[in-house]
Amino acid sequence: MTRETLFNSAALAALALVPLWAHFSGEPFTVTLATRAVILALAAVGLHIALGLGGLVSLGHAVFFGIGGYAMGILAHHAQTYTPLMEWPFVIEGTKSMPVIWLVAVVLSSVVAYFIGLLSLRTSGVYFIMITLAFGQMFFFFAISWSAYGGEDGLSIYVRNGFPGVNTLVPIQFYALCFVILAAVMFFAARLQRSPFGLALNAARQAPDRVETVGLNPMRLRLIAFVLSGAITGLAGALFADLNRFVSPTMFSWQMSGELIIFIILGGLGRLYGPVVGAVVFVALEHILGDLSDYWHIYLGVLLLGVVLFARGGIIGMLLGREVAHD
Amino acid sequence: MTEAILATQGISKSFGALKASDDVSIDLMAGEIHAIIGPNGAGKSTLIKQICGGLKPDTGTVKLLGEDVTDLPTELRARAGLGRTFQISALAMEDTVLQNAVLGALGGQGNPWRFFKPVLKDKDLLDTAMEALERVGLQDHAKTRTAELSHGQRRQLEVAVALTLKPKAFVMDEPMAGLGTEGSKRLTEFLGDLRHQAPILLVEHDMDAVFALADRISVLVYGKVIATGTVEEIRANKDVRDAYLGDEA
Hints:
The complex is a heterodimer. Chain A is mainly alpha-helical. Chain A has helices spanning 3-24, 28-53, 62-81, 98-120, 125-145, 171-194, 196-206, 208-213, 218-244, 254-267, 274-292, 296-310, 314-320; strands at 155-156, 246-247. Chain B is α/β, with parallel strands linked by helices. Chains A and B meet through helix 6, helix 7 and helix 8 of A and helix 2, helix 3 and helix 5 of B.
């Protein structure tokens, strides 16, 4: 076992054990905080596939996060008001079932990611950043003006949605559910990184000319990566909305997209555990520094500056050094 | 007469008033090395881009194995059997030597849409990749990060990646560039054998290598082919001496 796998296992174990400890020592707020960290980590693991592997600096991933959030909000809203989502040409009812909501969130974000990718992947570098940002803003302002679903005020859901066999109202149980999803997605992402697709995508980031001359289409590789990435971030959005029992246009905001990028840079760009470590540290700082000062973002800024200037591999890079080429 | 493996037929390409390719017809026959030489700015790189994809000629056609590939994008020309090496190494520097070779093998196989099984446990891909690395003598560096290779080794890896595709024709853009005397001598020997597997269109500045290797030479000046012929014919050609070779011949 290399130091890196050791570190990763320890990080995952800590993420599983700390809330358990908090639960039994009667600190439910810490459990909620950990749930928030896990869900944000999931969203950032989604971005990692586009950004870390594909090299696509998407400043619009909040689109998928928001779509997931609104998929949950709208379905649950109709369920709790007993009004169908639509009646013609066929009736679609709302639902309070998490698996259904997740499926809708994943499918919708994939479809949107496909079309956004199709348009924005024609560009690269700063233009790609700007186009994804523009899409993000489009969705943000659309959500603000969508008065049927709360507009600027967003939508509140009275009771958290259900999952078969789990009492999602108990913080530790909802946490466990989110943790299992994160672990499962990370397992698949780890496999993906080593798969033929992962190898080709990785090469398309480093040497697109080479990928073309061996007969593969870098654009198509990036598009599929973008879709997978959006789908995962969309799933995280649905969970995030369920955690807060609330969804609002801020889930679509460009600050949200920026935070996802910050998690990755903070934790370690290019590493699967980077976004996870980044999200956990971010949420912890938000909590600790937020208690000290309303202007906690200033300290976060200094930290980020430090990481970018002195620890290019992020926190994991600082602790473990450069990643060894995996076999 | 047998048909050319790779041919350009009267291709022209202009950038504004500049004629980068002017009615260029070049063919590559089975088993031969056809070298393209010419002074800087003669349009060699533009020509290669039109042959390999990435730049579409204004007029004329590019044919590979008798098929018109003028409208095909780069990756489909590669699948049709064109193996290319770059003047400036285009390799995944963070990846290992083996991973780069496996990428080539994966391209040759044509199906990157597998998301679960580790690519480095795929025996077919590994065998193809290792065989190519062995042929260029990089088998002992398989696990080395590409960024840590010497310049010469990167040139070898360029060739190895092209080999994994088992192409029907090679297009090599200055494979000797930056190699020492010893390195270019070894590569010269290697390419001399390689032509029997698939013919090579060789763009090269190293005249020793060109004269040692080429079965035919075409001289490109201002986008135009001013002469095509054997080494002796080209050495003796007065136009070529005036335009390019000067005292070297």
